[in-house]
């Protein structure tokens, strides 16, 4: 009896002493992303990767703030890439769930809606895959984005295609989606500098699956090459139907789709030789050890390979951890937002960020990765070469855009 | 005091007290959206419920109202209050242009023609990027009033709630006025038997056009209020899917009644949010509830409530 009482007292004393040194608390973070609908190919992997990052951060001891340690808890809401839904989801996270840090955001329309009011909230917004340039041109101090804008990549892609010796290129894509349009605009500007000409701008909607009318028209124009920009699925149909129509021209694209996503629609033979000109993102041949570990862990946990753009959200979670630790507070969102802008690229980052003045995010809250040329070779995306990208110059340009 | 008036006063008192009763601001946000939907649904009810023409362009007109108020403010520097007043008038011009050819056909054909107009509006909003900024949308749409910290600060959601409540009550009163006027009686007659109306020498097309244009003006006003509340608009929210929601709001609440659209609007806004617990089954559940409601409550919630009240009264 005495021994039991002694053990009990010792345990209680240990708990008290431990509690005085480091209280373990929970920090709830939110994710608003497209979990259903056409954009779920980007949104769902992003939401998954935030949950995975949160578990990894917790397993590594959580977020240390003073004497406290915070374990992350993640609430995920579907915004269906719809502006009203996104607004509702974020309002719910902030107002009802008391969340201060909101991650995810794969798609520009929904992200733009939230960005329009987030600066007045006691919250920090970390944007992932949404590539519309205007998201980081509004001077919103509590917003950062891990993915570079589409036109930053488009310019590099235009220079690369021109270097291949093509003079007449036809564009087929989701040109009514603004960030694809801005990619093509920047592409065209660079392409023209080398004497090239874009001879067609054919459009498909994100729900279209039959591009043969546009491709037939393009085939008659006899271009040197084809550029396809759009969501993975319609782009895969475009590549497939181009081969079915007997078009034997080099095919370039901007899709950021994984091998698995493309192979659901097109065969490897139909994809052979296709180029994807995009931020380097996650492709095994070009990635670091952190990227390889991310790929392996994600595949094991979710039974599916991660999409190339999903680490934008994974990196958000780690960036947030480091910023909170640097700010020394979870309550002071202004300090955390400021700490994000002072953050250097951290070792857990999966994407290969190009720092601006030594920082991961520039003064606009924008991060930059290298751009790469990837080619489909025997069933896989193969990293061929890095595209010339001047993040410092682009950052200066971005600061001048209203 | 008649029982109906007592009910209206209680409902109004409840709406006035609502912000004080809500502890989570998120529900105030949803209530503002629902009140905006009340205005839109009252307009839809005029053409659908009272005139008997199912129009599938209400969200398109809402888009015209939203974009016109935003663009008039940014391009001409007009004050927000003025652009909100002008937005329904701009919408009316478009409604006149589309209503005249649309109303030459009846029934399903009218529905299909209006659906096509909604698609045209959507495509124009998406592709006329020089004016609308396309899919990226328009950001930073200002609130009415004199900015943050002013005596009446429209950035405060409670203030905006009361602002929208006043407009919604005024528009519901206007709808009641129209319905109870001679015009309203003719609209009802058109719904019952349009050929008979024509046979007694009434130019029914004028009344139908009136209902269509006024319905569009309600939507235009709702769009303007939405734009200034959200400070952001893009074409996504003015698609055919939203027009179908407006039809559903009228059907579920009670077609051809003034209370119906109010109830329907709140259901259309709140129900999908309450079903979030169902995760990816949310939309299936939402669809199922709507289908069952339409089958088992063809006269909507108001119709059902009246049936129950009359049965209780008979006892």
From TrEMBL, chain A:
Keywords: Amino-acid transport, Signal, Transport. Residues 26-377 form the Leucine-binding protein domain. The keyword Transport applies. Residues 1-22 form the signal peptide. It holds the Pfam family Peripla_BP_6. Belongs to the leucine-binding protein family. This is ABC transporter substrate-binding protein.
UniProtKB/TrEMBL annotation, chain B:
It comes from the Bacteria. The chain crosses the membrane at residues 50-70, 76-97, 109-130, 159-179, 209-227, 247-271, 283-305. It comes from Paracoccus maritimus. Pfam families: BPD_transp_2. It is a multi-pass membrane protein. Keywords: Cell membrane, Membrane, Transmembrane, Transmembrane helix. The lineage of its organism: Bacteria, Pseudomonadati, Pseudomonadota, Alphaproteobacteria, Rhodobacterales. It is found in: Cell membrane. Its main location: membrane. This is Branched-chain amino acid ABC transporter permease.
